[in-house]
């Protein structure tokens, strides 16, 4: 297959391949992978080929082409697409087709990218293993008995399998970075507000952010450049102009860059030794590149997961209220008109009971409780206060360094079924990632090695708000002297 | 609303027997005095008024807010609550809300925010309403209303707060089909409402009425809302209870919130009904606010009674929390001052000024003022251009307002602008055109985008020169010697008969001119 999105661009400009040929090849690879990994909820064969043909026609007539012309792209099934279903991997939206494109999807189309399909995920992005999907689990291409991580499991697995160079994921508490780490690919969660959320089906609105998953930091930069930017339809979108992320990669000289190592994370008991070793080794690589290494601490990191698991379910309980069977989505049939609470309440209860899976229901219940009268001060409002402290930690840390370095996950990819019945264990997958969401800062997961079982290990870099360029610059430099990201599973 | 227990009662106290005599309701027997000393009863009323802000588009999307469009034609992914759609605040709504707040003397805090009020209902597609919980756009204020007890005095009614929120859609229960199906129209969903909450400062249904009348006039005058109760752009909920003095003790009855009142008259009737009903219930059960803090009742307009809406009052938990899709609203002092500078006169001030300035009756000034500030501007322009305030007032009230009503249009969209009407009325005053021909011109202008000159030309109206009129009248007098005789014997009215004939021969002849010419010719003989 291909090595990078930029290779795909140059193959076309040199005339060695047409966009249609590339799309055909990609669709064939997806077909092979789909049977083994189930990365997609929907493969858009016809529209992909039509989009590719349109790119070829444009090129033929000498028209100006977009920056992702003819590059196959996969879109997580939580982003609205007007010509494909948008299911959020839920029975609730199994047959839902939005009448509009998410802003990011529109931007991909405008950039002449070829959208090949929608990727599988945890239901409504709630989970860390893609096991809560109503469309079956996604399997990790490195070991099909293991999870690709989640919630953007399909998005990471299809890149890892080598079928698609670029994939759009979403990250509320680590949902891009953790699957990227488990699948040995590069994934970036941008600053909150950098990428428009319009058309992203909300899980937790104050934490959700869309970002790229790719084979390298360079490809992530290419994709982020396309999707980032202010948009008036999202009130939380930031007006700051978008930096040229690809230009930031011109140099790999990290002299003058101060990297703060999160020593407490690395020394955490729950961290696998192989991950600790890989993170420590990466620190040496950064030294080699000229960076200065200091040690920093984010003092409230013990409160990240509890804070996150109050705020995210609270917002989710509200965001998911709209799925009530009244206007769209799943509606229970054969409503008994003679129940105690009447047909309307019966319709609501049964539609939601049937449409939502167990994890979604659990979070709706937790969130409803946390926002209830008499409990909101103890939970939701308190969590907001802690969130401010967590933000303060980041601000303080970034006065001491330019980037933070630490692990992405406590372990490498775990076996399917291992944690699905133990929500607390599952939630602890987010131990190192939710801080960036709570603080709104950008963070990237970069392949940093393999454990004894041959499973990929990720390294996390975090930067101050709107410093995606710095993040990509450092990640790209790291990838210029390492080859972890070049390994492909022998699937 | 502040708790009634803490609220000092400074209102008017009328013995219950006296008050009951004014209540026109045969649904309840008049209270029977069971204690020897008369109990004095004070009615405590607070009003929650929703006014729909007159914005072009909805509060969080670009959909139109026009009333009466076919169901579900003014909707988009945002107001339909489709997955992934996000709200974007309408700045105009903020501006109007601040303007309304300033008009009722509210504090405008530098920051307010949006919260989600969560409940399930089919006309609320997101499962929550975007509203304001603890930081409303307008803080405390007041409205002075005429005191019905002492002419010329005013009573000050406190305003607790005013907050913005989006409206829900409409549910229509389809009884006719026999299936009990409900149809939902989401056109109204997301239109901006300002909920103005008063302190429990009103002491009678008349005061409530005066407050509403005053508030409505203000909102219309400032161009903030149309306040059409029938169209739902003004809605009123009344919180009513009684403070009863029994000897040394003061007892408060449970607060009742009355909903679904569709006219000011209904508000008045509902309050009067509640006074009697609550007194009766208290006599029967002795229940006070401590045993039952608050219940909700509906108003039945045909039976003229309030009725319990739910068997058991469930305490709703709306689980308010800040809407993460919207930023807090920051309002700069300069913005507030800029809006304040656009407030202009109050309706009262305008009403007082117009009669002196234009020679119109106070009643006419009132009608014009009640139609809103845009109408006042229109009238004043017409009056100035035509140089005749009385004529301007009569045309504005009859021809302009009638056409506006017939065609359901605003004065801002009225096809005959003030300049044209002023021009036309000036010609009447100058005798260039008679009143009935001017009406023809007016009606023509309503349907045709023309100048007054063009309209006159289109209608074939020509000014007739005096020699032509002289000849015409002479000819008619020659043919009607009886009329000449009658006039000469003192009956000047006899010339009236000539006018019709003259008009037949020359439709452009001005009746007044014909009359004058005829008298001149006869008398010169
Ligand atoms: Zn709309």
List keywords for this structure.
heterodimer; A: 491 residues; alpha/beta; Amidase signature (AS) enzymes; eleven-stranded mixed sheet; 16 helices; B: 525 residues; alpha+beta; Arc Repressor Mutant, subunit A; 3 domains; ten-stranded mixed sheet; three-stranded antiparallel sheet; 37% helix; disordered N terminus; binds zinc ion
Description:
The complex is a heterodimer of chains A (491) and B (525). Chain A has 491 residues and is of the alpha/beta class. Chain A has a domain at 5-253: Amidase signature (AS) enzymes. Chain A is 38% helix and 12% strand. Chain A has 16 helices and 11 strands. Chain A has helices at 5-13, 19-37, 45-60, 103-110, 153-160, 177-183, 217-227, 263-266, 273-288, 304-319, 342-355, 358-371, 380-400, 423-427, 434-439, 468-481; strands spanning 40-43, 72-76, 114-119, 166-171, 186-189, 209-214, 258-262, 292-296, 403-407, 443-450, 456-462. Chain A has an 11-stranded mixed β-sheet, sandwiched between helices. In chain A, strand 10 (443-450) and strand 11 form a beta hairpin. The two termini of chain A are 13 Å apart. The mean pLDDT of chain A is 97. Chain B is of the alpha+beta class and 525 residues long. Chain B has 3 domains: 9-315, no CATH class; 345-458, no CATH class; 466-523, Arc Repressor Mutant, subunit A (Orthogonal Bundle), CATH 1.10.10. Chain B is built from 16 helices and 17 strands. In chain B, the strands form 4 sheets. In chain B, strands 1, 2, 6, 7, 10, 11, 12, 13, 14 and 15 form a 10-stranded mixed β-sheet that branches. In chain B, helix 8 packs across helix 9 (389-407) and helix 13 packs across helix 15 (496-505). Chain B starts with 13 loop residues before the first strand and ends with a helix. Residues 1-36 of chain B have low confidence and may be disordered. Classes of the chains: A alpha/beta (491), B alpha+beta (525). At the A-B interface, helix 10 and helix 11 of A face loops of B. The site of zinc ion has 8 residues of chain B, from loops. Zinc ion binds next to loops of chain B. Chain B: Keywords: ATP-binding, Ligase, Nucleotide-binding, Protein biosynthesis, Transferase.
């Amino acid at each position: 297959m291909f090595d990078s999105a930029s290779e795909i661009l140059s193959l076309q400009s040199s005339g060695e391949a047409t966009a249609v040929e590339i799309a055909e090849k990609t669709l064939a690879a997806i077909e092979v992978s789909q049977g083994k990994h189930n990365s997609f909820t929907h493969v858009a064969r016809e529209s992909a080929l039509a989009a590719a043909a349109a790119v070829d026609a444009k090129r033929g007539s000498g028209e100006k082409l977009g920056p992702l012309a003819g590059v196959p792209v996969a879109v997580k099934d939580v982003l609205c697409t007007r010509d494909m279903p948008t299911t959020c991997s839920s029975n609730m939206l199994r047959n839902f087709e939005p009448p509009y494109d998410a802003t990011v999807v529109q931007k991909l189309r405008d950039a002449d990218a070829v959208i090949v399909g929608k990727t599988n995920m945890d239901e409504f992005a709630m989970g860390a293993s893609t096991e809560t999907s109503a469309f079956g689990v996604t399997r990790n291409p490195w070991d099909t008995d293991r999870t690709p991580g989640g919630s953007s499991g399909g998005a990471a697995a299809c890149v890892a399998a080598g079928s698609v160079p670029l994939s759009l994921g979403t990250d509320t508490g680590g949902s891009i970075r953790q699957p990227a780490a488990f699948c040995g690919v590069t994934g970036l969660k941008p600053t909150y507000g950098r990428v428009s959320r319009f058309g992203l089906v909300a899980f937790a609105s104050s934490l959700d952010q869309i970002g790229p998953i790719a084979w390298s930091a360079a490809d992530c930069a290419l994709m982020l450049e396309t999707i980032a930017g202010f948009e008036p339809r999202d009130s939380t979108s930031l007006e700051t102009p978008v930096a040229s992320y690809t230009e930031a990669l011109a140099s790999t000289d990290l002299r003058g860059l101060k990297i703060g190592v999160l020593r407490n994370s690395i020394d955490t008991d729950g961290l696998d030794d192989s991950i600790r070793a890989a993170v420590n080794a990466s620190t040496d690589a950064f030294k080699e590149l000229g960076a200065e290494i200091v040690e920093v601490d984010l003092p409230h990191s013990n409160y990240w997961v509890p804070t996150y698991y109050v705020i995210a379910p609270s917002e989710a309980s509200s965001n998911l209220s709209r799925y009530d069977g009244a206007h769209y989505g799943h509606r229970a049939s054969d409503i008994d008109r003679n129940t105690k609470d009447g047909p309307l309440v019966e319709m609501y209860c049964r539609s939601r009971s049937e449409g939502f899976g167990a994890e979604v229901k659990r979070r709706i219940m937790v969130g409803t409780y946390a926002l209830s009268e008499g409990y909101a001060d103890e939970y939701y409002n308190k969590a907001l206060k802690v969130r401010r402290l967590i933000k303060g930690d980041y601000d303080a840390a970034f006065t001491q360094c330019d980037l933070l370095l630490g692990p992405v996950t406590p372990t490498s990819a775990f076996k399917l079924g291992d944690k699905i019945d133990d929500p607390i264990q599952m939630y602890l997958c987010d131990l190192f990632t939710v801080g960036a969401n709570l603080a709104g800062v950008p963070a990237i997961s970069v392949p940093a090695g393999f454990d004894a079982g041959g499973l990929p290990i990720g390294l996390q870099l975090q930067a101050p708000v709107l410093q995606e360029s710095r993040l990509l610059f450092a990640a790209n430099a790291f990838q210029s002297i390492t080859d972890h990201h070049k390994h492909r599973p022998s699937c | 609303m502040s708790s009634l227990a803490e609220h000092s009662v400074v209102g008017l106290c009328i013995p219950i027997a006296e008050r009951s005599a004014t209540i026109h309701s045969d649904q309840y027997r008049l209270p029977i005095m069971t204690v020897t000393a008369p109990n004095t009863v004070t009615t405590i009323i607070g009003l929650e008024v929703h006014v729909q802000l007159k914005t072009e588009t909805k509060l969080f999307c670009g959909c139109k807010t026009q009333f009466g469009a076919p169901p579900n034609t003014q909707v988009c992914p945002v107001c339909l609550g489709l997955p992934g759609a996000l709200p974007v605040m309408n700045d105009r709504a903020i501006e109007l809300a601040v303007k309304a707040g300033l008009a009722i003397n509210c504090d405008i805090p530098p920051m307010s925010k949006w919260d989600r009020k969560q409940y399930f209902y089919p006309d609320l597609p997101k499962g929550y309403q975007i509203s304001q919980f603890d930081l409303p756009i307008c803080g405390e204020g007041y409205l002075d209303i005429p005191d019905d007890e002492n002419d010329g005095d005013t009573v000050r009614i406190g305003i607790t707060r005013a907050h913005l929120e989006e409206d829900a859609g409409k549910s229509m229960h389809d009884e006719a089909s026999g299936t009990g199906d409900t149809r939902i129209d989401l056109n109204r969903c997301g239109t901006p409402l300002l909920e103005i909450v008063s302190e429990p400062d009103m002491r009678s249904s008349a005061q409530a009425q005066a407050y509403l009348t005053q508030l409505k006039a203000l909102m219309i005058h400032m161009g903030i809302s149309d306040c059409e109760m029938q169209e739902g752009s003004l809605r009123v909920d009344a919180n009513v209870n009684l403070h009863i003095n029994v000897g040394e003790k003061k007892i408060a009855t449970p607060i009742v919130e009355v909903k679904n009142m569709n006219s000011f008259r209904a508000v008045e009737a509902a309050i009067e009904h509640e006074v009697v009903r609550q007194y009766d219930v208290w006599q029967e059960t002795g229940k006070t606010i401590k045993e039952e803090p608050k219940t909700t009742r509906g108003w039945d307009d045909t039976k003229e009674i309030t009725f319990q809406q739910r068997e058991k009052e469930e305490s709703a938990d709306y689980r308010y929390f800040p809407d993460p899709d919207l930023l807090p609203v920051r309002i700069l002092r300069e913005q507030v001052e800029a809006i304040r500078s656009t407030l202009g006169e109050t309706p009262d001030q305008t009403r007082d000024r117009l009669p002196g300035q234009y020679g119109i009756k106070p009643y006419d000034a009132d009608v014009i003022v009640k139609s809103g500030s845009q109408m006042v501007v229109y009238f004043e322009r017409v009056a100035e251009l035509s140089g005749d305030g009385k004529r301007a007032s009569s045309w504005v009230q009859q021809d302009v307002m009638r056409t506006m009503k017939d065609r359901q249009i605003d004065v801002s969209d009225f096809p005959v602008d003030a300049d044209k009407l002023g021009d036309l009325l000036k010609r009447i005053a100058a005798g260039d055109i008679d009143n009935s021909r001017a009406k023809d011109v007016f009606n023509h202008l309503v349907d045709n985008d023309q100048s007054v000159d063009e309209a006159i030309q289109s209608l074939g109206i020509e000014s007739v020169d005096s020699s032509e009129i002289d000849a015409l009248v002479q000819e008619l007098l020659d043919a009607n010697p009886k009329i000449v005789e009658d006039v000469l014997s003192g009956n000047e009215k006899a010339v009236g008969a000539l006018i019709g004939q003259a008009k037949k021969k020359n439709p452009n002849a001005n009746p007044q001119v014909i009359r004058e010419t005829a008298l001149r010719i006869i008398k010169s003989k």
